[in-house]
Write a structure and sequence with these properties.
The complex is a heterodimer of chains A (309) and B (245). With 309 residues, chain A is an alpha/beta fold. Chain A has helices spanning 44-51, 72-75, 93-103, 109-119, 135-147, 165-180, 193-199, 217-224, 239-247, 271-280, 295-308; strands at 4-15, 18-29, 33-37, 59-64, 78-81, 153-157, 185-189, 202-207, 210-216, 228-233, 251-257, 260-265, 285-290. In chain A, the strands form three sheets. Chain A has a six-stranded mixed beta sheet with strand order 5-6-7-3-8-9, sandwiched between helices. Chain A has a four-stranded antiparallel beta sheet with strand order 11-12-10-13, with helices on one face. In chain A, helix 4 (109-119) crosses helix 5. With 245 residues, chain B is mainly alpha-helical. Chain B has one domain (2-241). Helices cover 84% and strands 0% of the residues of chain B. Classes of the chains: A alpha/beta (309), B mainly alpha (245). The interface between A and B is medium-sized, with 28 and 24 residues.
Chain lengths: 309, 245
């Protein structure tokens, strides 16, 4: 059983009379790369700010690493990348990192800063002013700053925004290394659904201040796949056979395209019945797979449903 | 204290990288010239060496009381600009607040970042201005160098820095809490104008310039009380919500 690194219990946040977060409950477990998704203005940034102790929840319980995040000793164990990178343009990359490292009470900031600059491939530009950096380089530097204090938890708000594809791959690899090699925990807020789908184990989707979807990504994808199946056959299926499939209890053919058939089946349907029927009609099944919703489909469906309510 | 100093040192370094800091110092030196002409016009109306000596001594003492305060406050606005205004405009303050630093440490760090260079420059330029006035314009009339009185010296070196710090803490607190922190800089401008006009006004009211240290001490007490009250309402949430997003 893994410990909860972040735990929000029934958290509400009201700002200027507006309810920004409504009864948000979620837990990020040790070793997770937790994807936090939602459209603009959904409440992601507010949640992150509460987790970092920048805002106070109006009601509900917040605990980070089992402690109150308002305490300096808790924040010492958290690295972060925020939407505004917090880097000083007139200072060099090296000086920026040393400044932040000192605020984290690192005993040998210079050595650590050299190490993390190498990790994000910025060692050769360490003495350049940050004002001369591209957006992608700034994001890498912000990530280096987050890693410098060797935190247990990293809270990353859009860490790959504005980064070119090669840089995105590098940052993703860095995040995976932090999880698998160093045992860190990452809360990743992102608009990049493909990125989240590639690297996150668990996700939460927030919309209009409410958590609409929460849990293990794979399970959610199966749930949202609505019990669908995709069947690829050696030859196109004749219409009478399709009609016959539709007569099976709890089975409905949703789409037929050439040799591909998409159908939905209820939870009690025995899949072998479908395969046997096709085989008995001389149709050879080449591939049979359970349909999973992509994160993009899940995102769109949830947001649309919430909009209609 | 360590983190307060880390924040202060970074902000001071940033301000000294800016050209406008040096332009401000130049403007201060030019301002001093107005005092030169004032002295020269008045001294010409005096007859007798004793009258000239008395006026010269009083004039230079007045400078020792007023210039360090006036110049320090004048430079504060430029340092406050780098320490708070730019930090809030670029939202760097958000990242700073997310580090293991308390809001009071940030407040004190930024107040020191404004106060320290301002008083060093303010007192430095005042000493320079005093020497130029004394050696260049007063000594030819008095035939001897006039040292500032002991109270004036204590006022310049000890009381003024404490007063500047206590004013700066209030202004920085206000700047951290309001969405347009530039307005806070008007406080510095206001005090500067008050000091320029105040010397004459006090003279008109028959209040001797030698009462300045007492006025300064009273102001320190008042500012400390205000700062104490303000410190209780300074939170990261307030600062964040007043920051441009």
């Amino acid at each position: 059983m893994r410990d909860d690194v972040i735990r929000l219990d029934h958290v509400n946040k009201e700002l200027s009379g507006r309810q920004i977060l409504k009864d948000v409950t979620l837990a990020v477990k040790q070793g997770d790369i937790f994807g936090y998704l939602g459209p603009n203005g959904a409440g992601k940034t507010t949640t992150i700010r509460i987790i970092l102790g920048l805002l106070q929840a109006t009601s509900g319980q917040v605990s980070v690493l089992g402690q109150d995040v308002q305490m300096n000793r808790t924040r010492r164990k958290i690295g972060f990348v925020l939407e505004a990178d917090g880097l000083y343009d007139n200072m060099t990359a090296y000086d920026n990192l040393v400044y932040y490292a000192k605020l984290y009470d690192l005993s040998q900031p210079a050595q650590r800063v050299d190490d993390v600059l190498r990790l994000v491939s910025l060692a050769d530009r360490a003495r350049d002013r940050v004002g001369t950096y591209s957006k992608g380089m700034r994001q890498r530097l912000a990530l280096a700053r987050a890693m410098a204090p060797d935190p247990e938890l990293l809270v990353l708000d859009e860490p790959t925004a504005g980064v070119d594809p090669t840089g995105q791959i590098e940052i993703r690899q860095l995040m995976l290394d932090m999880i698998h090699k160093q045992g860190k925990t990452i809360l990743l807020s992102s608009h990049n659904l493909d990125e989240v789908q590639r690297i996150c184990d668990r996700i939460a989707l927030i919309h209009k201040g409410q958590i609409r979807l929460y849990g293990e990504l794979e399970k959610l994808q199966r749930q949202m796949g609505h019990g669908g199946f995709e069947i690829e056959t050696a030859q196109p299926i004749a219409p009478p056979i399709v009609a016959e499939l539709n007569t099976l209890p709890d089975v409905k053919v949703r789409e037929q395209r050439d040799r591909n058939l998409t159908l939905s089946a209820g939870p009690n349907v025995d899949i072998s019945v479908i395969v046997t029927l096709l085989a008995s009609r001389g149709v050879r099944v080449e591939q049979f797979k359970k349909q999973e919703a992509s994160l993009e489909e899940m995102f769109t469906t949830i947001v649309k449903e919430a909009e209609q309510k | 204290m360590n983190k307060i100093w880390i924040i202060a040192r970074k902000d001071i370094g940033e301000a000294f990288r800016s050209r406008s800091t040096y332009i401000f110092i130049l403007v201060m030196l030019v301002l001093t010239l107005s005092y030169v002409s004032g002295y020269r016009v008045h001294v010409k109306t005096l007859t007798g060496q004793q009258a000239i000596d008395d006026y010269s001594r009083s004039f230079l003492n007045g400078l020792a009381y007023v210039l360090p305060m006036m110049y320090s406050i004048f430079v504060c606005s430029i340092f406050a600009n780098y320490s708070v205004i730019v930090d809030k405009a670029k939202r760097n303050i958000e990242s700073l607040m997310a580090t293991p630093v308390s809001m009071n440490q940030i407040w004190m760090g930024k107040s020191l970042a404004v106060t320290l260079p301002s008083i060093v420059i303010g007192i430095g330029v005042s000493i320079l201005a005093y020497l130029v006035m004394d050696l260049g314009f007063v000594t030819p009339n008095t035939h001897s160098f006039i040292f500032p009185g002991a109270v004036a010296a204590v006022s310049a070196i000890i009381i003024v820095p404490i007063l500047v710090f206590s004013i700066v803490t209030i202004v920085i607190n206000i700047q951290l809490n309001i969405s347009n922190p530039r307005i806070g800089n008007f406080v510095f401008t206001g005090i500067f104008i008050l000091l320029v006009l105040g010397v004459n006004a006090l003279g008109g009211l028959g209040i001797s310039i030698s009462y300045f240290p007492l006025i300064y001490l009273g102001l320190i007490g008042l500012c400390t009380a205000v700062s104490f009250v303000l410190s209780r309402s300074l939170t990261k949430e307030k600062v964040l919500l007043s920051t441009k997003t």
